[in-house]
Amino acid sequence: MIDVTCAIIIRENKILATQRGRGAHLEGFWEFPGGKIEPEESAEECIVREIFEELEIQVVVIRKLTPVEHHYPDKSIRLHPFICRIDAGEIRLKDHAALCWLEAGELDALNWASADRRIVENQLLK
Question: What pTM, to 2 d.p., does this model score?
Fold first, then answer.
């Protein structure tokens, strides 16, 4: 089981979604940005680091949501979601193909990676 974090970044009542880039695992699917937790790193430290590495912004964690376990054909992950806000910087995509800002009710329209879809359906659209 791989522990991974993701940030549900909220700005002006909209939520950031990012599309996985060319050559990435699950290429073309939408996700909440984040990444693998490194040894000796907390989930909170990981999400702050990963968002800076992927989007060149600094975020502040508002709260942690319930982790989701998902089994893809080639790996199993435990996804730790965090509600975050941007503290500094302007988004610059490094690994992703696209981004969009959506209201909570619009999230279901995207083609989400399966683990992220479970967060959308079970924790954000309730």
Answer: 0.92
